[in-house]
TrEMBL record:
CDD domains according to UniProt: MogA_MoaB
Gene for this chain: moaB
Protein's UniProt name: Molybdenum cofactor biosynthesis protein B
Pathway note: Cofactor biosynthesis; molybdopterin biosynthesis
Organism placement in taxonomy: Bacteria, Pseudomonadati, Pseudomonadota, Gammaproteobacteria, Aeromonadales
Protein species of origin: Zobellella aerophila
Keywords: Molybdenum cofactor biosynthesis
Length: 171
Protein backbone atom coordinates (compact mmCIF):
# COMPACT_ATOMS: atom_id res chain seq x y z
CA UNK A 1 0.00 0.00 0.00
CA UNK A 2 1.38 3.41 -0.94
CA UNK A 3 1.63 6.03 1.77
CA UNK A 4 2.08 8.82 -0.75
CA UNK A 5 -0.55 11.19 -2.05
CA UNK A 6 -0.67 12.53 -5.58
CA UNK A 7 -1.13 16.14 -4.49
CA UNK A 8 1.31 18.49 -2.75
CA UNK A 9 0.19 19.37 0.79
CA UNK A 10 1.63 22.67 2.06
CA UNK A 11 2.75 22.30 5.67
CA UNK A 12 2.99 24.91 8.40
CA UNK A 13 6.64 24.93 9.48
CA UNK A 14 8.33 26.79 12.35
CA UNK A 15 12.06 27.55 12.28
CA UNK A 16 14.13 27.88 15.44
CA UNK A 17 17.74 29.05 15.44
CA UNK A 18 19.59 28.20 18.63
CA UNK A 19 22.55 30.54 19.09
CA UNK A 20 24.23 32.74 21.65
CA UNK A 21 25.68 35.00 18.95
CA UNK A 22 23.36 35.19 15.93
CA UNK A 23 20.68 37.76 15.28
CA UNK A 24 18.27 38.23 12.36
CA UNK A 25 20.99 39.86 10.25
CA UNK A 26 23.58 37.13 10.81
CA UNK A 27 21.30 34.08 10.93
CA UNK A 28 22.14 32.61 7.53
CA UNK A 29 21.04 29.10 8.55
CA UNK A 30 17.58 30.16 9.72
CA UNK A 31 17.23 32.36 6.65
CA UNK A 32 18.21 29.44 4.40
CA UNK A 33 15.57 27.19 5.99
CA UNK A 34 12.81 29.80 5.75
CA UNK A 35 13.66 30.51 2.10
CA UNK A 36 13.89 26.81 1.23
CA UNK A 37 10.62 25.81 2.87
CA UNK A 38 8.66 28.66 1.27
CA UNK A 39 10.27 27.99 -2.10
CA UNK A 40 9.07 24.38 -1.77
CA UNK A 41 5.49 25.64 -1.23
CA UNK A 42 5.21 25.33 2.55
CA UNK A 43 4.13 28.11 4.96
CA UNK A 44 6.41 29.69 7.54
CA UNK A 45 4.49 29.55 10.82
CA UNK A 46 7.08 31.43 12.88
CA UNK A 47 10.83 32.04 12.98
CA UNK A 48 12.59 32.58 16.30
CA UNK A 49 16.16 32.87 17.55
CA UNK A 50 16.81 31.76 21.15
CA UNK A 51 19.94 31.50 23.26
CA UNK A 52 21.35 28.02 23.72
CA UNK A 53 19.41 27.34 26.90
CA UNK A 54 17.79 23.94 27.35
CA UNK A 55 14.70 25.30 29.10
CA UNK A 56 14.10 28.19 26.70
CA UNK A 57 14.36 25.78 23.76
CA UNK A 58 12.07 23.26 25.43
CA UNK A 59 9.46 25.90 26.30
CA UNK A 60 9.24 27.21 22.74
CA UNK A 61 9.19 23.77 21.09
CA UNK A 62 6.58 22.64 23.63
CA UNK A 63 4.34 25.55 22.64
CA UNK A 64 4.68 24.68 18.96
CA UNK A 65 3.95 20.98 19.40
CA UNK A 66 1.05 21.58 21.81
CA UNK A 67 -1.17 23.34 19.28
CA UNK A 68 -2.40 22.52 15.81
CA UNK A 69 -0.85 25.56 14.10
CA UNK A 70 2.60 24.01 13.53
CA UNK A 71 3.10 20.68 11.79
CA UNK A 72 6.90 20.71 11.52
CA UNK A 73 9.65 22.31 13.61
CA UNK A 74 13.07 22.81 12.05
CA UNK A 75 15.81 23.62 14.56
CA UNK A 76 19.31 24.73 13.62
CA UNK A 77 22.14 24.94 16.13
CA UNK A 78 23.12 23.51 19.48
CA UNK A 79 23.69 19.94 18.31
CA UNK A 80 27.41 19.65 19.03
CA UNK A 81 29.30 18.46 22.11
CA UNK A 82 30.18 21.66 23.96
CA UNK A 83 28.58 22.44 27.31
CA UNK A 84 26.44 25.07 25.55
CA UNK A 85 25.06 22.62 22.94
CA UNK A 86 21.76 21.60 24.55
CA UNK A 87 19.29 21.30 21.68
CA UNK A 88 19.00 17.47 21.66
CA UNK A 89 18.83 17.45 25.47
CA UNK A 90 15.97 19.95 25.32
CA UNK A 91 14.03 18.23 22.56
CA UNK A 92 14.40 14.48 23.16
CA UNK A 93 12.20 14.39 26.31
CA UNK A 94 9.38 16.03 24.31
CA UNK A 95 9.27 13.39 21.57
CA UNK A 96 6.69 10.60 21.48
CA UNK A 97 8.74 8.75 18.88
CA UNK A 98 12.32 9.31 17.83
CA UNK A 99 13.03 9.12 14.09
CA UNK A 100 16.40 7.38 14.38
CA UNK A 101 16.80 7.26 10.62
CA UNK A 102 16.97 11.05 10.34
CA UNK A 103 20.13 11.38 12.42
CA UNK A 104 21.62 8.24 10.89
CA UNK A 105 20.99 9.39 7.33
CA UNK A 106 22.13 12.94 8.10
CA UNK A 107 25.46 11.62 9.44
CA UNK A 108 25.83 9.21 6.51
CA UNK A 109 25.38 12.01 4.00
CA UNK A 110 27.65 14.43 5.87
CA UNK A 111 30.33 11.75 6.21
CA UNK A 112 30.65 11.92 2.45
CA UNK A 113 31.06 15.72 2.74
CA UNK A 114 33.09 16.10 5.97
CA UNK A 115 34.59 12.72 6.76
CA UNK A 116 34.76 11.55 10.35
CA UNK A 117 33.94 15.00 11.77
CA UNK A 118 30.30 14.04 11.28
CA UNK A 119 30.43 11.88 14.42
CA UNK A 120 30.29 15.12 16.41
CA UNK A 121 26.78 15.88 15.12
CA UNK A 122 23.88 15.06 17.39
CA UNK A 123 21.28 15.70 14.67
CA UNK A 124 17.98 14.13 15.76
CA UNK A 125 14.40 13.94 14.60
CA UNK A 126 11.13 12.75 16.03
CA UNK A 127 7.38 13.08 16.32
CA UNK A 128 5.51 14.76 19.17
CA UNK A 129 1.74 15.25 19.17
CA UNK A 130 1.63 14.69 15.38
CA UNK A 131 4.32 17.36 14.89
CA UNK A 132 7.66 16.47 13.29
CA UNK A 133 10.73 17.98 14.94
CA UNK A 134 14.16 17.97 13.29
CA UNK A 135 17.36 19.25 14.93
CA UNK A 136 20.28 20.06 12.65
CA UNK A 137 23.70 21.61 13.22
CA UNK A 138 23.99 25.39 13.03
CA UNK A 139 25.97 25.75 9.82
CA UNK A 140 24.15 26.78 6.68
CA UNK A 141 25.78 23.87 4.86
CA UNK A 142 24.35 21.42 7.39
CA UNK A 143 20.89 22.95 7.00
CA UNK A 144 21.21 22.73 3.23
CA UNK A 145 22.15 19.05 3.53
CA UNK A 146 19.30 18.26 5.93
CA UNK A 147 16.73 20.10 3.85
CA UNK A 148 17.73 19.27 0.30
CA UNK A 149 18.85 15.69 0.82
CA UNK A 150 16.29 14.48 3.38
CA UNK A 151 13.48 16.80 4.42
CA UNK A 152 12.45 18.23 1.05
CA UNK A 153 11.29 14.78 -0.05
CA UNK A 154 10.08 13.52 3.31
CA UNK A 155 7.87 16.59 3.83
CA UNK A 156 6.26 16.18 0.40
CA UNK A 157 3.08 14.08 0.29
CA UNK A 158 3.91 13.07 -3.29
CA UNK A 159 7.15 11.33 -2.32
CA UNK A 160 6.91 7.56 -2.71
CA UNK A 161 6.92 5.00 -1.30
CA UNK A 162 6.40 6.94 1.95
CA UNK A 163 6.83 10.31 3.63
CA UNK A 164 6.11 12.03 6.95
CA UNK A 165 3.05 13.99 5.84
CA UNK A 166 0.61 11.22 6.71
CA UNK A 167 1.89 11.24 10.31
CA UNK A 168 1.31 14.95 10.85
CA UNK A 169 -1.70 16.83 12.17
CA UNK A 170 -3.55 19.26 9.97
CA UNK A 171 -3.04 22.98 10.42
Amino acid sequence: MSHANNAFVPLSIAVLTVSDTRNEETDSSGRYLTDALTEAGHRLAEKVIVKDDKYAIRALVSRWIAGPEVQVVLITGGTGFTSRDTTPDAVLPLLDTQIDGFGELFRHITYQELGTSTVQSRAVGGLANRTAVFCMPGSTGACRTGWSKILLEQLDARHKPCNFVMHLGSA
